[in-house]
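Researcher: Structure prediction, please.
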Amino acid sequence: LLLPFVLWGCVGFAAACSNENDCSLNGDCVHGVCKCDSAWTGAVCDMLNFQPAANLSAIRGVYNQTEASWGGYPIFDGKVWHLFHAQMLNSCPLSSWETNSVVVRSTAAQPNGPYQMQEIVLPQFAHNPTIRVLPNGTYALFFIGGWGTDAQNCHSSSISSKSLRNENHVQQPNCSAYAWPKSCGTAMPGPNGDTCGHSPLNAGCGIALATSESLYGPWRVSRVRIQNRWESSRLYCAFTNPSPLVLANGSLLLAFNGGYCDGRLETVGLAAAPSIDGPWNLASPNPLLMDDNGSSIHSCEDPFVWQDRRGFHLLVHDFKQQSRYAFSADGRDWQLSPHAPYNCTVHLADGSSVDAPGCGNRPHLVFDQASGRPDMNHPIWLINGAMRTSDNAPSADSFTLFRPLA
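Model: Predicted structure follows.
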């Protein structure tokens, strides 16, 4: 009776694998067992493997008493790290983001900071930035927004009301930026023609792009319009939260959120362009991720996409589990892991832990640069937007969280 019990117990500890796909493309299958890369753990290598952070200061990349921040992405110039991140103006909280968010460049000696603000790169409204380096050395800074707003003033007890320019187009009855079924027709309002723009349009979306030959600017801003969006039944409107992937040949993929105008769906799609100049088209008319039952579209936001030697990977902010991970060998067919790759408990080197509520938002991975360029096979830090809990700073209620990976 002992042998069957032992065999059953072994199955419980490690899932059998036959190839690296069974290891979530984050490890090798060795004698039927997944051998995970250092940054990943779990029976099938689908959970991030964190090191304990040295102390609270080590996880607080952008953290101050007056200005709320909300995630971003750093670029290393060989000497200094430049973090391009969202920050709220005038000591306003995160809830002011639709009027007060700007893109800021901050610098630090280490990838996790602490970062010091250097300049406002893009004025309000500009939110959820992420930056990449193109093969020719140009910097491409994707963000949402790109239209002017009247920022709230939170220095005083009274907060000014919004006074936004109205770009509302003539709309059919029962058709609005927040409810635009395909029966409303292709003439969607907004500067991108996707229902996004100044209030009363959907101010929480609309992808734009800023490019520069220098991290110090000047920046040239243009709109990102997905040309064939109407070919999709679900991904034809409200494009937001871009995550670019620069391929070796200079072409690009762009993971994004879309679909909010159709039943307030939030899910992830994928666009492609032959170069940074476009044109952008949907790589597939279908959302990338399906629920665990395989029959319904998975609801999530804030994608971060990358490619390594095994294939393509995706982290998202999941509305049920905080975080989810998906992978694909070819970038077309994606498998959604059932497990959350991380939670919001941060462990410290002294054995204590702290909570970082909201930490599923704005995931980004920082990769090792020992070779002088990012090694996409070796992530070393996870970045998120998170809410403050440990001190009383109501105006700066959010910060940019960094967690070290093994």
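Model: The chain has three helices and 26 strands.
Researcher: Thanks, that helps.
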